[in-house]
Amino acid sequence: MGKRMHWAWIVLLASFWSVFITYSIRLSYSILMPEMIRTLEITKAEAGAIASSFYLVYSAFTPFLGYLVDRASARKILTYFGIILGLGTFLMGKPTSLAQACFFFAIVGFGSTAMWTPVVALVQRWFGARRRGLILGLLSVSYALGYGIMGLVHPLLVARYDWRTCWFLLSLLALATVPINALCLRDRPQDLNLKPWGEEGGPSEKGFPEPKRKIRYQELLKLGNLWWAGIAYFFSAFNSYVVNTFMVTYGNLELGFPYAQSTKLASTIAFCGMAGAIGLPLLSDYWDRKKILVWSNFLMGLSVLLVIWAGKNWSSLLLGVGFFGIFYAGVWPLYAAAAADYFPPEVTGSVLGFWTLFYGLGLVSAPILGGFIADRTGTFGWSFFLAAMGGFLGAFSFSRVRKLPT
Length: 406
What we know:
By secondary structure, the chain is mostly helical. It contains 15 helices and no strands. Helix 1 runs antiparallel to helix 8 (177-184), helix 2 packs parallel to helix 4 (98-112) and helix 12 (289-310) packs antiparallel against helix 13.
């Protein structure tokens, strides 16, 4: 008989499903935004405020979840938060006003707090250090895949039913994460008398042993790397979520492409992103991860300038968003892997949680500021230009991160 599948792969598959569903829900709002703007009769800035309500709650609670997952059961956290995610997603099909939509999407944001940082911290416990980039790349394909599929499915559902139906169906998928996580996740390989998969046995490959001394949060705050990387995280998030929040609306309401055609912009970002999500982290396992992360930020900025330049030329516009998608999807697993490269493994969750404060500032400000500028200027061009500057500044900020002494 062949060897049994290592439980690490069961954990990865369950985690893949959780991230897939969470990002399908999270990024569905940007796909459904033009239809919701028409129905709720709101401005672009108000539509951005709905997105920001998600990101505000997400940002406020994710650092706590990062801290908690280093000390409590990731399995229980993901299971319970899946219920909240499903409830909030169901309610997103019900709003009749701006205030209701903001409140309901905030509930979705709270449920989503468990579905990235705790997942990343959990998965890294189950795989050896040399497999880190590859595994996080495979995990990150899930959010690109969810985004891309929703860009194809939602136009069909909207044409046959309406945008509210899309949220109801998504809520059922969110609730499906609950039994899957409860049955499949385990907190550590040691719980099943296993070693991390891919652990070679060398001194740098010991996975995640129990530390001799817990590093205090106050000690982390004194590290310059924590702050420079956090600032880079802010600019990456701002760049990404101005583009992702408004790209379909830009194509439909500003450039005048039909709704079903405009949603293909989101799918192009997502499906091109699958190559970046696997390729860039895998490359970073063999080349300098820092250089790849710096260049990814820079090229995210450059790709947004290409989107602005493309205007109504559909082929050039697709080229710009596809180029953006490669680096947008690849940058997040690079940050996750860098957290483990530049900090002790027992504080990975805390580091990622802290960086999420900066990430959250980018998420919250991007939809509101991007929508406000578009309302004031009559175009998303200036909003996208500001996003491009975020990419360049993110590259500079991460270039300041230094390897810790060994």
